[in-house]
């Protein structure tokens, strides 16, 4: 993945692979995911209050990992056939391996995700995150945590984006809401959860 253009000027690596699925494959997976994934409304604790977002989420993995995201802990469901197929495609394209996947469903452009970085304690430090997009094309933005430099990328139907190295330490990212997009989008972020060995 090192010879592909890095979209970040410094302090991290963001590589965009473009469409890694044909449009027929991407359509097929979009419909299967809408139907078969156990979508739940996302909850977050913001300024001490529990809020429920319209965006829906699901969490799958090779073991029932518990994963804390926005201060809410979830337990991973076992891989589905489609998720295993997509994981293999993302691993084949990147040469990385992943053991879990967080899925987001945005019903329209009015739903997005606020500025954040994915440096949760459970995630492997500086591990690659493979982000596969299905459905409506959306803009994805990065902002440097210190100097506020911005980088925008358009994420296409069936495309893959990889965030690696120190990206999560130095950059925030978000999916900005937009009134221009009426269709749904699903995003799958393949991740590596560290196996914690209990201290005796
Ligand atoms: O929807 C996206 O493209 C990004 C989702 C994201 O940043 C996340 O799940 O952490
Ligand atoms: Fe993220």
Automatic annotation (TrEMBL):
Keywords from the UniProt entry: Dioxygenase, DNA damage, DNA repair, Iron, Magnesium, Metal-binding, Oxidoreductase
Matches recorded under Pfam families: 2OG-FeII_Oxy_2
Record flagged with keyword DNA repair: yes
Species: Leadbetterella byssophila (strain DSM 17132 / JCM 16389 / KACC 11308 / NBRC 106382 / 4M15)
Domain Fe2OG dioxygenase: 97-194
Cofactor needs: Fe(2+)
InterPro entries associated with the record: AlkB-like, AlkB-like_sf, ALKBH3, Oxoglu/Fe-dep_dioxygenase_dom
EC number annotated for this UniProt entry: 1.14.11.-
Single GO term (MF): metal ion binding
SUPFAM superfamilies, sorted: Clavaminate synthase-like
UniProt name for this protein: DNA-N1-methyladenine dioxygenase
EC top class named in words: oxidoreductase
GO biological process, one term: DNA alkylation repair
